[in-house]
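Checklist before submission:
- one chain only
- standard amino acids only
- sequence pasted in full

Submission:
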Amino acid sequence: MFTGIIEELGTVVAIDELGDSARLSIRGATVASDAAHGDSISVNGVCLTVVDNADGVFTADVMGETLKRSALGSLRAGSAVNLERAATVATRLGGHIVQGHVDGVGQILSREAGDQWETVTFSLPAELGRYVVEKGSITVDGISLTVMAVTDDTVGPPPRSARFSVGLIPTTLKLTTLGAKGVGERVNLEVDIMAKYVEKLLAKAPRS
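Returned file contents:
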């Protein structure tokens, strides 16, 4: 489990293709400082397991399914990535409960700069729209963010999508990948797990 509070910006050192999977080598001095084999680290919102760790660089294997269902397949050597170690029982929950299980991939639709912050709008797979609400939480590339607005935009031919907007403060712009990503770039999305539990419970509730 994670909190969506990014600890540092890491850098992809190498990507080794292994048939239907890949091994990522990522430099991140902070998260690698105490990482051991088997530990979990969130990389752009995807929970990966540490295989090896030496000199500030850790490696992790990524299955083909993960590459297919997330934006990790777009990474290249030199790409910046958001990194967060798994939470402990003593961790301050500064963000929200994040599993590191990507629900879908969106794109940056627009960026609107303000005096001290920036409004960024993303596409959202239509089937995930029901889990996103104004003032609720969503994870974008591993970052816990508060939804400013959400709009159902499911007309037109498939693939249909919705859209949502968030406000990024200077700290987020400076210390995460969202400060440099441009319109059209893909991002990993994880909706609030609590919304999915509530939906399932209500669906199975007896009807009076």
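Reviewer check: The helical segments are 29-32, 64-69, 170-175, 193-204.
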